[in-house]
Design a protein that fits this description.
Pathway: tRNA modification; N(7)-methylguanine-tRNA biosynthesis. By secondary structure, this protein is of the alpha/beta class. It is 35% helix and 19% strand. Strands 3-2-1-4-5-7-6 form a 7-stranded mixed beta sheet, with helices on both faces. Strand 2, helix 4 and strand 3 form a beta-alpha-beta unit.
Length: 227
């Protein structure tokens, strides 16, 4: 287990709870007992959490959960563990789980770095999704960006050999940084020559569709754990 005394001095998120609707609160109250996993400083048995043996994909920061639910619905033979700190997004994804009658999604409402450190064992994940993380565009805030070498090192250790690490962003400068960070990790191999084409499993979000119409770019970076 990584250093249990590890203390984070810089967080990649600001806890902006926003407005929690009555429906989102109801979804949390009703859905978390079934689909939520409480944070605990102890290893999590993922097969027990999902009640089956199947490929396990981790998503860090699922936002409002629309893409997450769509991916899970399209891939019922794969289990998805979503981590998000913002309550409105958690509530919204739980609503979608209920509406779509999904059984292959679980949610942890906690800091992803602490979950990686304390709950996920080495070599347990078949893939990791990090879609549109906060770009922290101002240079003085770049240190808050989620995707940096220490996190990537943790993620690589939690991936099975051959497991993939997939990030997507609409900030070109951040995309270049992510590509450099992934490329610098000796345990990872790029699946493409530079940036990757968007794989079919990652749906276009409404925000992304609007950006494409306006001529904005989106960059996918997909590497695999060597071995």
């Amino acid at each position: 287990m990584d250093n249990p005394a590890f203390q984070r001095s810089i967080r990649s998120f600001v806890l902006r709870q926003g407005h929690l609707s009555a429906g989102q609160q109801r979804a949390i109250d009703q859905g978390m007992p079934r689909f939520g996993i409480e944070y605990a400083p102890a290893r999590l048995d993922l097969n027990a959490a999902f009640g089956r043996t199947a490929p396990k994909i981790l998503e860090i920061g699922f936002g409002m959960g629309g893409a997450t639910a769509e991916i899970a619905a399209a891939n019922p033979d794969v289990d998805y563990l979503g981590i998000e700190v913002h309550s409105p997004g958690v509530g919204n994804l739980l609503k979608l789980i209920d509406e779509k009658q999904l059984t292959n999604l679980r949610i942890i409402r906690h800091d992803a770095v602490e979950v990686l450190d304390m709950m996920l064992a080495p070599d347990v994940l078949d893939g990791v999704h990090i879609f549109f993380p906060d770009p922290w565009p101002k240079k003085r805030h770049h240190k808050r960006r989620l995707i940096q070498a220490p996190l990537v090192e943790k993620l690589v250790s939690r991936l099975k050999p051959g497991g993939y690490l997939h990030a997507a962003t609409d900030w070109e400068e951040y995309a270049q940084q992510i590509l450099e960070v992934f490329s610098a990790n000796p345990g990872l191999e790029n699946t493409a020559e530079g940036f990757a084409p968007r794989p079919a499993y990652r749906p276009l979000t409404k925000f992304e569709q609007r950006g494409i119409r306006l001529g904005h770019g989106v960059w996918d970076i997909i590497f695999r754990r060597a071995g």
